[in-house]
Design a protein that fits this description.
Elements lengths: L1 H16 L7 E2 L28 E7 L5 E8 L5 E8 L9
Antiparallel strand pairs: 1-4, 2-3, 3-4
Length: 96
């Protein structure tokens, strides 16, 4: 009983450590970060001419100056779903 209580406390405390970390990669649970198209909700303009399932790439620099590439997919209701995020950690040879 004591071990299970300790395990629950440790898992809850470790789970809180990753709450503010941006997720990179492919995931159905990617959350928008500052600079993402959907950071403050869906865009006001609807993508009416693009077919459902189309891919929308987006590149920007995050709050730390790293280049971030995101991929969105257009949903049947014309909203954007974030499906991929990649970040570049070092810009040694970048001319921007």
């Amino acid at each position: 009983m004591r071990n299970s209580v300790a395990a629950v406390i440790v898992s809850v405390s470790l789970g809180g450590c990753t709450a503010g970390v941006a997720t990179y990669g492919f995931s159905p649970n990617l959350e928008p970060i500052p600079g993402s198209i959907t950071y403050r909700g869906q865009p006001r303009t609807k993508l009416t001419k693009a077919p459902v399932g189309s891919i929308v790439p987006h590149e920007f620099r995050d709050q730390f100056g790293r280049r971030v590439s995101e991929i969105y997919v257009i949903q049947p209701d014309r909203s954007l779903r974030l499906v991929s995020r990649r970040g570049q950690t070092f810009d040694f040879f970048d001319d921007d």
